Amino acid sequence: MIARAFTGDDPLARSQAIGEAEFRGLIDRLYDDFVADGLSLVAIDSDSGRVAAVILAEAHREAPCEEGSDAIAAIIASARESYFADHDYANVELMHIHFIASNPDYRRQQLVTRLSANCLQQARQRGFRRVMVEASGIRSRKLLEKHLDFKPRVTIPYADYEHRGEYPFRSIAKHGGLTLMDRSL
After folding, report:
1. pLDDT of residue 169
2. Mean pLDDT, rounded, for 153-181
3. Cα–Cα distance, 170 to 72 (Å, whole number)
4. What pTM value is reported for the model?
């Protein structure tokens, strides 16, 4: 259900026609790294056993970007490059939230906000000083700003982003652009 919600709601996933199977494959490839850092959380409905919300996070690494298709990985890498060019966090423990989603059946229960707050608290207790996340749509940017105090740092407009001679995100230009956000802990 989370995969269906993500591939249906996320502007980047929709623009590149990422299907549920591809999304599940991405999460399967990255899952071990996320679990090893101990910062990923899953909310499970105790009555039904269904996944209600999930947040996948890790200590920031300068590893190659693996988020989705080539165009998606490239725009995320561009945002990160701009971010680190303008911010010196060489000696700061930085947590990176890669993925936040909720099952549509549970959206009005503020599970993402509570799960994110718990994740941020755990990160703070482990000594992280900052956390960053990429927001791909207007709804996620508003949630991150309003409820979790993230500040936009880098925005790459979808309408203008060129990748290999094409403009792969023009169809989602109404979402503004990919925004890398951060906050101190």
Report:
1. 95
2. 95
3. 13
4. 0.81
Which residue would you say has higher pLDDT here, 64 or 82? 82
Residue type, 70: D
Give 91's contacts (C-beta < 8 A, 6+ positions apart).
none
What is the per-residue DSSP string for 30-98?
HHHHHHHHT--EEEE-TTT--EEEEEEEEE---PPP-SSSHHHHHHHHHHHHHHHHH---TTS-EEEEE
Residue 136: in which H helix or E strand, if any? none
The partner residues of 7 in beta bridges, in order of sequence, read none
Ordered by start, the domain boundaries in the chain are 2-184
135-145 pLDDT, tens digit per residue, is 998 888 998 99
DSSP 137: S
2-184 placed in CATH 3.40.630.30: yes
